[in-house]
Amino acid sequence: MIRLGVVSSAAVLVVAGAVWAGETDCGEARLVCADVKDSGSATAIESFAQIYADCPIYSQLARDLLIGLTGEASAPAKVDDPKEPRRRLRVSDLRPRPEPDPDDPPQDTDYSDGEYDCLMAAAAPGQSPYFDGVKWADMDAENAVAICADLLLKDQDVDAEVVAAFGRALIKGGKLEMALEFSELAAMEGSGLAMNTRASLYNDGEIVPTEHETAFAWYMAAAETGLPMGMHNVAYGYENGKGIAPDIDKALYYFERAAFFGYEPSLLHLGVIYREGTHVARDMQRAVDYLKMAARNGSADAAARLGYIHEIGENGYSKDIEQALDCYFQAARQNNVVALHNLGSLTYHGRDGVPQDTEAALLFWGRAAKLGDVKSQRKFGRLLYEIGDVDEALRFLRLAAEQGDDEAQKLIRQIEGD
Predict the structure, then answer these.
(1) Which of 318, 347, 342, 321 is nearest to 332 (CA)?
(2) How far apart are the C-alpha atoms of 388 and 194, rounded to whole Å?
(3) Residue 20: is its pLDDT beyond 50?
(4) Which pLDDT belongs to residue 152?
(5) β-strand pairing of 17-20 with 2-3
(6) Vertex 230 angle, CA 124 and 210, to 5°
(7) How confident is the model at residue 349 (pLDDT cuts 50, 70, 90)?
(8) Using CA atoms, how far apart are residues 143 and 123, in angstroms rounded to an integer?
(9) Which residues of 85-95 are buried (b: 16+ CB within 10 A; e: fewer)?
(10) Most exposed among 110, 231, 261, 315, judged by the fewest C-beta atoms under 10 Å?
(11) Which of 324, 315, 329 is nearest to 274 (CA)?
């Protein structure tokens, strides 16, 4: 457990210990912030933000509260004397992980209701076998930050994985400094997600120097905790030589480790590798097996790729239009534009036993066109012109032409008589 009353976001983690940065008592800030928050006074909150400006988590939380009350935030207090850059936590600072006893049963962490709510809003897929994670694209950052911040302001003892989930939500919400602080706390307590978060920050280089070698070291540390996301990122590093010398065998090893835990991006990537024969001999059966597992785990991209394999009998794989339609519809329900476009083509032309249905094609292409798919914008525009809706036809054809579609530009000239 992390005691936020003892170690705060303004702490400097050095080896296995922690010391305060500057002279401001950030432990006191946490206690005062809870009272100020409950007061509902904009004046009190603004004063708090100024007094505890050296405690970035709590001063930022106060400014967020102020925005909620008045619509305006107080300016951060000016710092007269710039401080020396602080020493950041390194992988070598982490405490050695104890060797697990194979005879011990797995321990299910007893989360409080508040911790559970935070994890449901912000935890990563594969972070724990005891709860589902939230995909990055599906996370409501504002809601997740609010839920987790409310918990951290109230509770003294919080599990490291909860703190790590908060850090992930902070990154999605653009609060990178706070995310870095919280990830240091949780990483020190052994959270693989927090280590992965630190790696991503070193890759991006927005608030710490871009250091791909440091990022890879943190990804490897995350992988060694058993985090599938960390394994996937290690594999990506080996595959692309990012932060480490390229090594395809090691890349495949870590992709397969992550896939073993059902990590969707690794399953999808392995499916693509075997489908295209990248790094390995092409193997359509293995490709389909990996893509099916990814699709079962919710990957619309995998389902769309499977649909195309079944539709055309790609690379000698058996053609099965019913399977293709099932896969396309699974992906289309998640607004996958490839699946929507291909369903439009099948229904417009009436191919492979699929009944010709212009209205269905209009629906599929229209949905993909509105999601920004260029080919669908062109085909939807042409179909609208065929049924007499010239203005709407030109609108979608222009959208496609603006994205570089030469065929759409030709159709526009034909319609306008140029």
Answers:
(1) 342
(2) 56
(3) no
(4) 87
(5) unpaired
(6) 105
(7) very high
(8) 13
(9) eeebbebebbe
(10) 110
(11) 315
Tell me the pLDDT band of 97, cut-offs 50, 70 and 90. confident
Q: What integer pLDDT is reported at residue 88 of this predicted model?
A: 79
pLDDT of residue 84: 52
Distance of CA 7 to the CA centre of its chain: 27
Check: CB of residue 257 under 8 Å from CB of residue 225: no
Do 360 and 347 contact (CB within 8 A), yes or no?
A: yes
CB burial of residue 79 (10 Å; 0-12, 13-18, 19+): exposed
The answer to whether the beta carbons of residues 109 and 191 sit under 8 Å apart is no
Instruction: Answer yes or no: is pLDDT of 9 > 50.
Output: no
The answer on pLDDT for 316 being more than 70 is yes
Q: Strand pairing of 17-20 and 11-14?
A: antiparallel
Dihedral angle over CA of 337, 342, 348, 353, nearest 10: -150
Distance separating alpha carbons of residues 370 and 367, to the nearest angstrom: 5
Query: Helix (H, G, I), strand (E, B), or coil: what is residue 155?
Result: coil
- To which H or E segment does residue 12 belong? strand 11-14
Cα dist from 329 to 145, 302, 339, 352, 357, whole Å: 34, 12, 7, 16, 16
Residue type, 137: A
Single out the residue of 200, 196, 203 nearest to residue 220, CA to CA: 196
343-366 in b/e burial notation, b at 16+ Cβ within 10 A? bbbbbbeeeeebeeeeebbbbbbb
The arithmetic mean of pLDDT across residues 110-137, rounded, is 92
Tokens 């835990």 appear where? Answer: 261
Q: Which amino acid is at 398?
A: R
Distance (Å, whole) CA 172 – CA 87: 25
Q: What is the pLDDT of residue 94?
A: 85
Report which residue type is found at 376: S
Strand partners, 233: none
pLDDT at 101: 65
* Gap between the Cα atoms of 105 and 172, Å rounded: 35
pLDDT per residue over 256-281, tens digit each? 999 999 999 999 999 999 999 999 99
**φ/ψ (deg, to 5) at 404:** 95, 15
Confidence of residue 11 (pLDDT cuts 50, 70, 90): very low
> Which residue type occupies 90?
R
Looking at residue 49, its pLDDT comes to 75
